[in-house]
Amino acid sequence: MIPRRLFSARSRAALEGMGRWTPWAPAVPGPGRLLPLHAAPRLLSVGCARRAKHQEPPGKKLLSEKKLKRHFVDHRRVLVRGGRGGDGASCFHSEPRKEFGGPDGGDGGDGGHVVLKVDQQVKSLSSVLSWYQGCDGEDGGRKNCFGRKGALLYVRVPVGTLVKEGSEVLADLSHPGDEYIAALGGAGGKGNRFFLANDNRAPVTCTPGQPGQERVLLLELKTVAHAGMVGFPNAGKSSLLRAISNARPAVASYPFTTLKPHVGVVHYEDHQQVAVADIPGIVRGAHRNRGLGLAFLRHIERCPFLLFVVDLSAPEPWVQLDDLKAELEKYEQGLAQRPHAVVANKVDLPPARARLPELRARLGQEPIALSAATGENLEELLQRLKELHDHHVAAELECGRRPLRW
Ligand SMILES: Nc1nc2c(ncn2[C@@H]2O[C@H](COP(=O)(O)OP(=O)(O)OP(=O)(O)O)[C@@H](O)[C@H]2O)c(=O)[nH]1
Ligand SMILES: [Mg+2]
């Protein structure tokens, strides 16, 4: 019996009803009776199974691109101040029958440093505050006790953070685990024990702790990936990234859907991983601040190779490519000359395929004609990506540098 006070009348009825529940047993046909095939019990409706297959896994609701942009910060001005050193103590040892035991003031502890540390879980500089104060060291004590040092204060930053002071680049934190001491803690003061000398047996001098270093730093995030995707708005860059990796940038039929860089990782059977960055679209005249300008091109500056994505359903796709290259050159000399592949997207649309021979002739190289929407010919792109990645790794090893690993 269910206690009356705990449940409302309605839920009691439901629970008591549960008491009469009997396990489901399939109807067993009697001897000589066969169940018709179409009457076999169906555990899950086909429609349900089909839907379940295409559903996103349950979890947190994805943020819209606009909201994501709000959380994405790629530069920050930050004031860092190291911890202050503890003061030295001035005191004298004294105990029964040893009245003048000499100076026994200990030194103060050093102030703690402020350290920038790369954390792969951090994706933008939005979590970095505008100022940081390191931990102070403890003052020295009696009986020659030294003060405790201030603890290190770690500031977590994303991979690819550039640390600048004015226009001078101080550090490039491009590998997970990289650290940079942004502000040194001040040295601890000396206690009067330190000043004990043959000609001065009872010094009273002690020094105060030093203030920590203070700096104004500029943090700049340059996304780190192997391949950077560049293309006009609506060329299908985000659709392509969704098709080849598990990144989920927003896709829509209006220009400038993507407002912040997304990085997707392509996994190969031999456990190689190639990171591909999708950035907002570029338009002709972006160097004159048209569209979203060229500022976000900093996110592909670090990419050793590029993917130019053109929309094959547009009237003259080869013009898109020339414009893209011109804009890249205006941003940084030689950027368009990096190893690259040309991807001709939307080959599934009727007029697109007819433009392919002309594009091929004008380019002087074979474009990868594919469709991000239908998945047609994606293997060729994956193959080409792998080739570009292998060349990059070989070149880096030859120069004695560590190739970028994702
Ligand atoms: N038919 C067809 N449509 C495509 C294909 N790839 C992308 N699209 C459509 O093109 C439109 C733009 O796609 P996006 O992936 O958002 O393009 P984008 O280059 O990322 O655009 P921005 O983020 O604005 O720079 C969407 O409506 C897509 O559905 C394709 O291969 N075939
Ligand atoms: Mg996009």
TrEMBL record:
Gene Ontology CC: one annotated term: mitochondrial inner membrane
Entry keywords, A to Z: GTP-binding, Membrane, Mitochondrion, Mitochondrion inner membrane, Nucleotide-binding, Ribosome biogenesis
Residue ranges constituting the Obg domain according to the UniProt record: 70-224
Pfam families to which the protein is assigned, alphabetical: GTP1_OBG, MMR_HSR1
A single GO BP: regulation of mitochondrial translation
CDD domains: Obg (cd01898)
Membrane topology annotation: Peripheral membrane protein
Major localization listed first in the record, in broad terms: mitochondrion
Molecular functions (GO terms): GTP binding; GTPase activity; magnesium ion binding
Residue span(s) of domain OBG-type G: 225-390
Listed InterPro entries: G_OBG (IPR031167), GTP-bd (IPR006073), GTP-bd_Obg/CgtA (IPR014100), GTP1_OBG_dom (IPR006169), GTP1_OBG_dom_sf (IPR036726), OBG_GTPase (IPR045086), P-loop_NTPase (IPR027417)
Cell location: Mitochondrion inner membrane
Function as written in the Swiss-Prot or TrEMBL entry: Plays a role in the regulation of the mitochondrial ribosome assembly and of translational activity. Displays GTPase activity. Involved in the ribosome maturation process.
Assembly information from the UniProt record: Associates with the mitochondrial ribosome large subunit; the association occurs in a GTP-dependent manner.
NCBIfam families cross-referenced by the UniProt entry: Obg_CgtA, PRK12299.1
Protein family membership: Belongs to the TRAFAC class OBG-HflX-like GTPase superfamily. OBG GTPase family.
HAMAP family assigned to the protein according to its UniProt record, in alphabetical order: GTPase_Obg
Name of the protein this chain belongs to: Mitochondrial ribosome-associated GTPase 2
Native organism: Catagonus wagneri (Chacoan peccary)
Gene: MTG2
